[in-house]
Specification:
This protein has 248 residues and is α/β, with parallel strands linked by helices. It has a single domain, classed as Metallo-beta-lactamase, Chain A (4-Layer Sandwich), CATH 3.60.15.10. Strands 1-2-3-4-5-6 form a 6-stranded mixed β-sheet, with helices on one face. Strands 7-8-9-10-13-14 form a 6-stranded mixed β-sheet. α4 packs across α9. The relative contact order is 0.12. The structure holds zinc ion and fe (iii) ion.
Amino acid sequence: MPLDLVTIRCLKDNYAYLLHGPAGTALIDAPEAAPILTELDARGWGLDLILLTHHHDDHIQGVPALVQATGAKVVGAGADSHRLPPLDIAVEADRDFDLLGETVQVIDVPGHTIGHVAFHLPESGMAFTADSLMAMGCGRLFEGTPDQMWQALSRLNALPGDTLICSGHDYCAGNGAFALSVDPDNPALHDRLEALQESRSPCAPAPLSLERATNPFLRVAELRDSLQMPDAPDAQVFAKLRRMKDEF
Ligand code: ZN
Ligand code: FE
C-alpha cells in the first residue's frame, strides 16, 4: 500500500508534505508550524518524523514549534548538520533508511545548496525534491555550480517516469512563463499550463514523465538547437538556461 500524501501550502509559496500510513506520519520540510498543526489536527494524526531537505529558513523554521507540539524526531543530512536544526537521525546520501516501514533512498542533489538531499520512496513512487527539481523549473544556484545541479537533475531524471515529484515551492507562474519563452512550440507545455489555469490546483506534485515533457531544465537535448548550442555539452546548455532564468 502506498503511503497517503497530503500537500500543505505554507508561507507565501512553499509546499510541505505529509506522508501517512499504518506506522505513523512524517512531514517533509517545515516552513512554518501553524498550517501543518492545523492539518494534523483536522485528520487526527500525530507527527512521528520531520525530514529536512536543506538548511534554508523557509524549509526548517517550523521545526522547533512542531517538535514541541508533537515530539517528532528530526531527520536530515549528517553532512549539513552544522546548519540544520538538531538532528535525531542523521542520514547520508546513497544510503537507504526506513520510514514508516518503507525504504527511502537519500539522493545527493547539490546546486541550490551544498548538502541538499532528495528523498525517494520507490514503493510509494514519490520523490521529495524541494528546491532541486521543481515543477517546470529548478532551484536557483546559491551555493553549487551548474555542473553540480545538472548532475543532480540527471540523477532525479533517472527515476521511474511515474514517480511523483514533490517539490518545495509554488513557482508555477514564473516557471511556466519562462518555460514558454524558451520552448514556445511544446504542445505538452501548453496543455499543462492550460490545465493549471482551469483547475487552480497546486502545480506540484507532478509525475516525472510530465516534468520530462514540460520542464525546460530536463529538455536540454530538445532546446540546444534553439539556443544555438548544437555541440555544447549538456551541462553547458543547462548553465545557459539557468542564467537566462535568473535574468528572466
Ligand atoms: Zn531553498
Ligand atoms: Fe525554498
